[in-house]
Amino acid sequence: MSLRELRLKRGLTQDQLAKKIPGMSRGRIAAYEGGHRAIDGMSLATALKFCDALHVSNPRKLLEPEGGHADDMDADA
């Protein structure tokens, strides 16, 4: 699943996700989701913050294309 899909699966808006990650802005999330900023270029620390906020155990899930699978998402949605 892509970053956008993971966010939507959790029922979060970009603003809500940004508020869960210190120092993150809605615009930066939009840039990652829209492909204007490379997700594979984000720091490990940033990827781990996204994982924590989205309850994802593997940062590689952030790199999956739209329609990918997130089999290792934690059970609590």
CATH class: Mainly Alpha
User: Biggest sheet, in brief?
Assistant: none
- Class per helix and strand makeup: mainly alpha
Instruction: Report the β-strand fraction as a percent range.
Output: under 5%
General form = globular
Radius of gyration, in angstroms, nearest whole number? 11 Å
Q: What is the domain total for the residues?
A: 1
Which consecutive residue ranges, at least 5 long each, have pLDDT under 50?
A: 70-77
Please tally the helical runs, counting DSSP H or I stretches of 4 or more residues: 4
CATH homology group: lambda repressor-like DNA-binding domains
Distance between the termini: 15 Å
Helix content: 40-55%
Order of helices and strands: HHHH
Question: Would you identify the CATH architecture?
Answer: Orthogonal Bundle
The residue-averaged pLDDT reads: 87
- CATH fold-level assignment: 434 Repressor (Amino-terminal Domain)
**Number of DSSP strand runs:** 0
GO molecular function, one term: DNA binding
InterPro entries: Cro/C1-type_HTH (IPR001387), Lambda_DNA-bd_dom_sf (IPR010982)
Domain HTH cro/C1-type: 3-62
Protein name: PbsX family transcriptional regulator
